[in-house]
What does this fold into?
Amino acid sequence: MKKQTLLSGIAPSGRLTLGNYLGAIRNWVARQDQYKCFFPLVDLHAVTVRQDPTTFADRCRDFVALYLACGVNPQTSVVFAQSHVAEHCELAWILQCYTQVGELNRMTQYKDKSRRNKGDMNAGLFSYPVLMAADIVLYKADLVPVGEDQRQHLELTRDVAGRFNGLFGDVFPIPEAYIPDSGARVMSLQDPTKKMSKSDTVAANVIALLDDPTDVARKIKRCVTDSGNEIVVREDKPGVSNLLNILAAVTETTTAALENEYVGQGYGRLKSDVADAVIALLEPIQARFSDLRSDELALDAMLAAGALEAGKTARRTVQEVHGALGFIPKSSRVGPRA
Ligand code: ATP
Ligand code: LTN
It folds into this structure.
């Protein structure tokens, strides 16, 4: 039987975090043998906020090396840079013409980012979810593993794809989001009512995948906990709930089991267990990263091969979309001008 298709991407802004790993990358890796997988480095998404051109390419290579260090297998999964496959932009344009401004206005991430980016309210920030929809349907993806914050963008993708199919026939499968039970929303260490975010400029809020073990231990030791001493997941205990969620996700257990295990224990013990578990998770990833990142030629060659392969599928889909819309097919015969 033909494998279904899985696709997911992360914009190379900031530094990859434990949230990105638990909410997204880990769930890509766990499914990569069951699905035909596409993992674009979505660099076109990153330029919705200003990036420094002198360091951007290096950051992009760091991200790709980290994908691989986390277990993405480039022999079986297609890893590539979105900017190397022009069809992402072509399809995004067409899909914009089937997306309502009102739908984009309702995106909470846009409302959030526009509040924070008052000085640069560019049109890319607004239309970004359509580029994401194009990323997904270009490869006719069936499954999209993401964290909780992307649920709304996935719903929009489903709506736009369904609308297009309603007008032009079944061109796109309607993709499903895969959002994990645990690790789908890792919170900031200093403000656990807010999502841990890779572009957060306050280092103490974030565990980066490349943080060294002493930093990880220090950040967790100093993270905000709550009043009282009960170790439970509860709305009025966002700090402790976050630590329990992280520990449950990293050690692949449930928060309910951990609540039982920690009855009568103090916050200090919980924090040192979370630190140990996170450090044990990150150490092998960091070791593999150093090896992979040191061979830039090999990384770039892998991206070139990925773009070649992704481009074949992408071209086919764009041609199908053009056909559905009634564009003149591009002739393979070049003759004299009429
Ligand atoms: P930025 O700060 O640049 O907006 P971010 O850290 O919020 O970045 P995204 O690029 O929006 O990350 O997300 C990449 C992937 O990681 C998405 O699938 C997203 O749902 C997931 N993700 C991001 N942050 C978290 C988090 N704190 N917990 C769980 N999953 C997360
Ligand atoms: N918008 C996503 C990143 C993203 C993505 C995608 C995720 C861009 N294209 C396609 C899944 C599938 C975000 O996490 N900010």
Notes: DSSP finds 13 helices and five strands in the chain. The longest strand covers residues 36-41.
